[in-house]
Design a protein that fits this description.
Blueprint lengths: L1 H17 L1 E3 H11 L4 E4 L6 H9 L3 E4 L3 H15 L3 E5 L2 H17 L3 E7 L2 H5 L10 H5 L5 E4 L6 H13 L5 E7 H5 L1 E3 H7 L14 H12 L4 E5 L1 H5 L3 H11 L3 E3 L19 H7 L2 E5 L21 E6 L13 E4 L2 H12 L8 H22 L8 H14 L4 E5 L2 H9 L8 E3 L9 H12 L3 E6 H5 L5 H6 L4 E7 L28 H5 L4 E5 L2 H14 L3 E6 L24
Parallel strand pairs: 2-3, 2-4, 4-5, 5-7, 6-7, 9-10, 9-11, 11-12, 12-13, 14-15, 14-16, 16-17, 17-19, 18-19
Antiparallel strand pairs: 1-8
Bound molecules: thiamine diphosphate and magnesium ion (MG).
The site of magnesium ion has 6 residues, from helix 20.
């Protein structure tokens, strides 16, 4: 008897052990239960062990060199997958580094969850100077769509469910989830823990537009003499690609893709008005916006760019407050893009009158004129290169590899690449978005490669690259199929500015003749210095064929490029300077 009792004791203890769970495991289980299988982040107190455990449990943990880049990766993962991208950071400084990306995700309507560890609540609230003390929840709130803190292990399930719903439902955006250090180690009964988890059902419910709104929109569109459709990145996000294509083709209306809306229909489509942008904005009389906002990127829907003729706007957006934000919207259609486009198609019935031929042929004529004006410039083989020579090559690369993902940032490097490189498939062009933000390059490239498994071509200004350049090590470490081309013109906009009063360099220039290709060689990647379009072409094709991490230093003429690219007009001018 006594023997048996002694033997039973350790068995009981093991049993008890098995029946407990803790914060670490509940967070991992909650993420997995909701199909969130990738985390982008940087380790440290209090989340180092969490990252290890998450990896051991089958979650892909992509470890970055700076949280801002991990955050941008999470944000674009959200755009590409319609599931919230997850970024994980340490407290205070790590949290703040991730916060720019969270605000960026919110501004761009990408679903993302920033999960940050935080310090002892009691000490933070009394401001007693804890390790990395900061009231993170309060700081995050104004910069994201929603912010939550979980204090008890049994609330982890609900906390994550709330974060997921807030990120993806309605207009998507960034959500902050604050997890204090103490939460991770909190122990609870395993069965009760399992029951506390929530699998989010229908996280982004369809939002069906009102029949009246659909009828009104179609009446306005039918009455148009010079109609135009503008496709924004919201339309790309919706993943309603076939329906959108059918709507555009059935209507016969010229379409203008916004930067990240490019490829929903190919830029080479006969109805594409991308190369006749100023004409269609000026001369159109009815404009249907699909997932595009009338913000600064569309000159707020008014002023010189939109011409003199009166305009009627139809707007399709999931956010009712978007309507009339800048100008009057005569036909607001509120709902998710997929449901709205389906309802419009249904309402159009079997036949739909083509827009007046004088309008569509005027648009086509303008487009062809502009395309043929550009063509010879794209074929030059100048050394050092100019933007057109280099971009002519990259344009062909994407034409031959339409499923590759193009990441693009810079000023001239951005504006000219956007205009020159045709896209053929949806969600293949990822760029600086609503804020024109520099620094998305490597984070976006990493997430694009991880989430899609497709090769990535990152076309980067030399300044733009500098914001996330250290992640080249991350690209090499995870052996990602990313080819980075740096348009090296020795500076921001140009490399020619001179300081006339001291030996300090001018604020816009960098070390002349820099060799960015040497950076990747230090991490085992392939570096190439390309001085002509021919060399550039060979190097990019080799990189795209091999899938090896590659960085090509494309030597551009320092005088190529203009101040702020296409948006120089936004620079304030000093009247005194001109005296
Ligand atoms: C976060 C952030 N900081 C600063 C800027 C201002 N800015 C706009 S474009 C740019 C860099 C342009 O130079 P580069 O990337 O070399 O492109 P280039 O015009 O020379 O081709 C900068 C710093 C910004 N948009 N975002
Ligand atoms: Mg530059």
């Amino acid at each position: 008897m006594a023997d048996a009792a002694v033997k039973e004791k350790p068995a009981d203890a093991a049993e008890t052990e098995r029946e407990l769970t803790d914060g670490f495991h509940l967070i991992i289980d909650a993420l997995k239960l909701n199909g969130l299988n990738t985390i982008y982040g940087v380790p440290g107190i209090p989340i180092t062990d969490f990252g290890r455990m998450a990896q051991a449990a089958g979650i892909r943990v992509i470890s970055f060199r700076h949280e801002q880049n991990a955050g941008y990766a999470a944000s674009i993962a959200g755009f590409l997958t319609k599931k919230p991208g997850v970024c994980l950071t340490v407290s205070a400084p790590g949290f703040l580094n991730g916060l720019t990306a969270l605000a960026h995700a919110t501004t761009n309507c990408f679903p993302m969850i920033l999960i940050s560890g935080s310090s002892e609540r009691e000490i933070v609230d009394l401001q007693q100077g804890d390790y990395e003390e900061m009231d993170q929840l309060a700081i995050a709130k104004p910069l994201c769509k929603a912010a939550f803190r979980v204090l008890h292990a049994q609330d982890i399930g609900i906390g994550l469910a709330r974060a997921i719903r807030a990120a993806v439902s309605g207009r998507p955006g960034g959500v902050y989830l604050d997890l204090p250090a103490k939460l991770f180690g909190q122990v609870m009964d395993a069965e009760a823990g399992r029951k506390s988890l929530v699998k989010v059902i229908d996280a982004a419910p369809a939002q069906i537009p009102a029949p009246d709104a659909i009828k009104r929109a179609l009446d306005v569109l039918r009455s148009a003499k010079r109609p135009l459709i503008i496709l924004g990145k919201g339309a790309a996000y919706a993943q309603a690609d076939d329906a959108i294509r059918t709507l555009v083709e059935k209507s016969g209306v010229p379409f203008l893709p916004m930067s990240m809306g490019k490829g929903l229909l190919p830029d080479t489509h006969p109805q594409c008005a991308g190369a006749a942008r100023s004409t269609v904005l000026k001369d159109s009389d009815v404009v249907m916006l699909i997932g595009a906002r009338l913000n600064w990127l569309l000159s707020h829907g008014k002023g010189k760019a939109w011409g003199e003729a009166p305009k009627k706007f139809i707007q399709i957006d999931i956010e009712p407050k978007e309507m009339d934000s800048n100008v009057e919207i005569v036909a607001p259609v509120v709902g998710d893009i997929g449901s709205c486009v389906a309802a419009l198609l249904h309402g159009m019935g079997g036949s739909w009158p083509a827009p007046p031929a004088d309008w569509t042929s005027a648009v086509s004529k303008k487009r062809e004129e502009n395309v043929s004006k550009m063509a010879p410039r794209l074929m030059n083989n100048n050394s050092p290169m100019d933007y057109h020579g280099a971009l002519g090559v990259l344009r062909t690369v994407i034409k031959e590899r339409p499923d590759a993902i193009l990441v693009n940032e810079g000023a001239n490097t951005l504006d000219l690449a956007r205009g020159i490189i045709d896209m053929y498939q949806p969600r293949k062009r990822l760029d600086v978005g609503t804020w024109g933000i520099m620094g998305i390059g490597m984070g976006y490239s990493i997430a694009a490669a991880i989430e899609t498994g497709k090769p990535v071509l990152a076309v980067e200004g030399d300044s733009a690259f500098g914001f996330s350049g250290m992640e080249v090590e991350t690209i090499c470490r995870y052996k990602l199929p990313v080819c980075i081309v740096i348009f090296n013109n020795d500076g921001i906009y140009r490399g020619t500015d001179v300081n006339s009063v001291s030996s300090d360099p001018a604020p816009t220039v960098f070390v002349k003749g820099s060799r960015y290709d040497k950076i990747i060689e230090g991490f085992g990647g392939v570096g190439v210095n390309a001085t002509s379009p021919d060399e550039l072409k060979r190097a990019v094709n080799a990189a795209m064929d091999s899938g090896k991490p590659t960085l090509i230093n494309a030597v551009l003429d320092p005088a190529a490029g203009s101040e702020s690219g296409r948006i120089g007009n936004l620079n304030p001018q000093s009247k005194l300077k001109k005296k």
